[in-house]
Amino acid sequence: MKEFLQVLRRFVPPYKKYLALSVLFNILSAVLNIFSFATLIPMLQILFKTGDADTATSLMPWALDKDTLMNNMNYYVNDLIATMGATTTLLFIGLALAFMTFLKTGAYFLSSATIIPIRTGVVRDIRNQLYQKINQLSLGFFSEERKGDIIARMSGDVQEIESSIMSSLDMLFKNPILIIVYFATLLVISWQLTIFTILFVPIFGWFMGYVGRKLKAKSMKAQALWSDTMSQVEETLGGLRIIKAFCAEEKMNKRFDKVNSAYRNDIMRVNIRQQMAHPMSEFLGTVMIVIVLWFGGILVLNNQAITGPTFIYYMVVLYSIIQPLKDFSKAGYNIPKGLASMERVDKILKAEVSIKEKENPIHVSSFEHDIEFRHVGFKYDQQWVLRDINLIIPKGKTVALVGQSGGGKSTLVDLIPRYYDVQEGEVLIDGINVKDLGIHDLRQLIGNVNQEAILFNDTFLNNITFGVENAKMEDVERAAKIANAYDFIMESENGFDTNIGDRGGRLSGGQRQRVSIARAILKNPPILILDEATSALDTESERLVQDALYKLMKTRTTIAIAHRLSTIKNADEICVIHEGHIVERGTHTSLLAADGYYKKLHDMQQ
């Protein structure tokens, strides 16, 4: 319960007014229920002529105690019987019962209706927080987490929180109120019977809590298996071409069935245990009713401590308290499942953001002098990827990084926009450490064109204007023309309003790359990072993309990673990176003349 209350403290405060209204309507519903049941006493007295009302010969001053209320009610009933007759009095009491039941059910409906904005609002807030946190977290976090697992937490786990925790809100704010009001009424009617009854409630509660704790452990395991299932779906969608090429459909089917069946078995055990709640509470409730009937019968028949009609009223109220207790126990089953999912969601929500902006960052809007790597060292976990990198890239110059795969080239350029932070040395822009700059200001200075063009399932227009607010159409068209993308965009069915499909799937590789170049041109950044932007293209596409890149690089400071050395022959400086160190640097001609590592790479490509 402590964990549940912590979840409520985190997410419910914005909806306090709805909570207050729900509590108010629940109190009103419970009070109206008690008074509507009280009409049973005079009805039973009239029907069975018990004579319990004969002693009420005069009105007593109104007070909130049982004897006064019973006396005055009996007095008015006797007066009605004397004036209008027993059958007419019975009709009036029945109408009063119907009217109070109408008010009670209205209050009950309003109490449930006011909980719905809380339920739906909290789930929306959790999803928003998850999405915002995913955007905040550094790239390093996602290299250790599977995409499918993150998707599972945002879909399955959040759905479980809604169906388990949020659906229990109504039960948890309504049932305690009903239980307290009904219990107080039982004490007023007969404290002897009530004390006898409550001996069974702690046993009932302990047993439900024990089963609930077991349920949470099972739910954690089941949700982890759901993440594995989603991860395999995500991997399959990404690798469908390879699966078909290697005729591995049957292998992947068996692999998926293994995880899917394990999830089914675990969730089946969780749900079977959850289904125990209703029959168990039904049985325990019936046992309690039987014992109370026996003990109450002794009080009615032997001791005359309570009258027959009052005892039946007591039993009706007691039976009414059983349903809230059942619902409360059901919530006790549901909540552990939701808390298990909340723990998994919190692994993202409470994950530490490793790339943090300092408290009072330096704000910049332009790039004036140079980018400098000063004694930079970087490692993933325990393995060093870069060691003692010293490099100055003057404004307006093009520096190319070449070398074997895994040598640290991409990591080096990722340090400039602070996708990662260095462990040794510092990266400076215009003499200012990038850690001291505002992250948003820093990244506004930089444009990226990657080996894999990252596009979104949207139109050409929205992909090109991505990250640029209020772009003019003439600027978008100009960017597309410079990127050699204008012609094929205009040939598409709806021009710039044509949807390009998931990750640009309706376009060729060269077209995707030119759209991403148009996006970089429209952003118009002073610093440009090209990460093997032409390595995956055919000769004709490479020529068009290379032409677009040349236009883009003219007036910018460029850092280009390249495997094809022919694409960076005109760079102002070429740095050869091998095993995390810069082993050679110079122009294309001077490096060939040096007859070193660069010459070997060049000869292999020739």
UniProtKB/TrEMBL annotation:
InterPro entries in UniProt: AAA+_ATPase, ABC1_TM_dom, ABC1_TM_sf, ABC_transporter-like_ATP-bd, ABC_transporter-like_CS, P-loop_NTPase, Type_1_exporter
Superkingdom of origin: Bacteria
Span of domain ABC transmembrane type-1: 20-337
Residues in ABC transporter domain copies: 371-604
Signal peptide: none
Keywords: ATP-binding, Membrane, Nucleotide-binding, Transmembrane, Transmembrane helix
Record's subcellular location: Cell membrane
Transmembrane segments: 21-48, 80-103, 172-189, 283-300, 306-322
One example GO MF annotation: ATP binding
Membrane-topology descriptor: Multi-pass membrane protein
CDD domains in UniProt: ABC_6TM_MsbA_like, ABCC_MsbA
Main localization category: membrane
The protein's name in its UniProt record: ABC transporter ATP-binding protein
